[in-house]
Amino acid sequence: MLGKKLVTAQKRGETRALCLGLGMVTCSMMMYFFIGITVVPFYTKSVWTTETVCKVLKANIKDKFLCPNSKGSEDEDIFPYPCLQVWVNLTASGQEVMLYQTEDTLERNPKCSYVPGKLENSEEVKARIETIASNFKKYHTFPCYYDPGGTQTNVILSRLYPPKGLLFAFLWPTLMFTGGCLIIVLVKISQYVSVLSAWQ
Q1: 90: helix, strand or coil
Q2: How distant is the alpha carbon of residue 100 from its chain centre?
Q3: Where are the beta strands (DSSP E) in 119-176?
Q4: Hey, where are the domains in the chain?
Q5: How confident is the model at residue 73 (pLDDT cuts 50, 70, 90)?
Q6: pLDDT at 9 over 80
Q7: pTM to 2 decimals?
Q8: CA 104, 109, 113, 117 torsion: positive or negative?
Q9: Which of 55, 87, 100, 198 is the most buried (most CB within 10 A)?
Q10: CA–centroid distance for 193 within its chain
Q11: Helix 163-199 vs helix 2-45: angle between axes, to the nearest 10 degrees?
């Protein structure tokens, strides 16, 4: 009687472990799919792939500029802010080009190097832009990214999805997938050993 209870409990434990492993594998595949349709297209679409050194030539703050966000944006998404324009000397080619914060900055407003988030406090936005401008004037040289193909003549300060970020995005689903497969393999080995022991 006790042996039957132990066997039943073992089978229940194996079933739960097997469901856990299959669930982890399923969740990891869903995460792979989500990353593949969101992060990967932005990474492959970016042409600013080569890192170089940029030297600041001038950093000017112009009068308030209306921010035209991405296409299809509503009128309430348009707000005024000081327009920071940073021009740098590209070490790789020696050209004088305009610097943007990220790829998204160029799409949102090609006339300004920095586009703030929508904030109600305009003084906070102004202070932040002035701080960024003073930092550019203080640190004259810094790493930046440019397009080696020449389709984009401007440069960006940082990539939205760098290679390390892409690898980090795939790290967790990979660990989950590996853990799920390991649990399934261990359950199958346990079942095989149990059957072999019973047969002997």
Answers
A1: strand
A2: 17
A3: 141-146, 155-156
A4: 20-45+164-199, 50-160
A5: very low
A6: no
A7: 0.67
A8: negative
A9: 100
A10: 45
A11: 160
Nearest to 66 by CA among 108, 24, 124: 108
How is residue 159 written in tokens? 């990539």
User: pLDDT tens digits for 110-121?
Assistant: 888 988 876 656
**Per-residue pLDDT band at 200 (split at 50, 70, 90):** low
Given a contact cutoff of 8 angstroms between Cβ atoms, the answer to whether 172 and 31 are in contact is yes
What is the reported pLDDT for 117?
75
Dihedral angle computed from the Cα positions of residues 74, 155, 84 and 134, in that order, rounded to the nearest 10 degrees: 140
The residues near 137 (Cβ < 8 Å, ≥ 6 apart) are 56, 59
Of 115, 105, 100, 101, give the one whose Cα is nearest residue 154: 100
Helix (H, G, I), strand (E, B) or coil at 113: coil
